[in-house]
Amino acid sequence: MSRRARIINPPQDLKRRAISATKGLNIELTPGELAKIETAVHKSKDRFVGQVAEKLKVLRSTHLVAEKNPGIHTMYLGQLLDESLAIKGLAGTYGFHLVTAVASSLNDFVMNRTAATDRQLIVIRLHIDMLYVLLARAQQPRGGMHAETEGELLASFKILTAKYA
Amino acid sequence: MPAKIDLSAVRFLLVDPSPISMELTWDVLMMMGARTVRKCANTDRAVEALRNAPCDIVIAEWNTAPMTGLQFIDYIRTSPQSPNRLLPVLLMTARSEQEYVLQARDRGITEFLAKPFTVEGFYKRLVSIIAFPRPFIDAETYFGPDRRRRAVKGFSGPERRVISAQ
Prior knowledge:
heterodimer; A: 165 residues; Four Helix Bundle (Hemerythrin (Met), subunit A); 4% strand; B: five-stranded parallel β-sheet; two-stranded antiparallel ribbon; 6 helices; globular
């Protein structure tokens, strides 16, 4: 006979300590409070762009080696999987939604892959180059692109990744 | 007077292998008023940190090592060595597809936050953890916060968990 489920009341200690009548943030953030917290994100935007640019530089160098040496494909694809997931997860918080979309496309493309053909490497290279261009134009809204161009770009990546999957 | 959330009274533990991501979360927490935020780049250090000092909320990335975020939750919820099986865990990940959300829920996470996140979404998860803690369910195949968050309209049957707990 299976064991009966037991219900455990949640501890209230944290609630008692952290809920205050006078100190802290409103449970529903006011626009002023939200704007203040978002300054933390804006302040670290340049740092994010710089750090991702460095990572892309490293990926580009490794890519050149991978083109000549299939022996490092598994390592390189693993590196791409981790880095693209990290970029996908962060860029949107800084307002770089197109960067998130391209990183997501790259992440989907390399997932479960341990080797790549020459054409698949070109697809990967195009993603890395596009991420680089978008970050280089980070100060411009939408990476300096019109909404229409942005849509066409993502559609092109979708076709490309499907064709060489 | 409406209630406020004072994050300076909350002790956080961040577990994230990505320095960029860790810094962002740390910056946002500090701007929200948090003062005690420990950072761990891997789960071995996180386990050690949990043993060494008390913590109120764990904020963990899914993509961690040597344990994955899910294995780390298993450690907290089910390991005999766990310092606090009821510890709230907010799991953050760029893997936001439904299958991942369901997997995390069934391992006993308290809250799930898909990345990229917004400041408001992040804060709402913290409010939910602090102000509206859910009861825990200790069942044969599950230990974690009650997964039933919504009352199903039109359900008129018995509350089986209450009956079986009596």
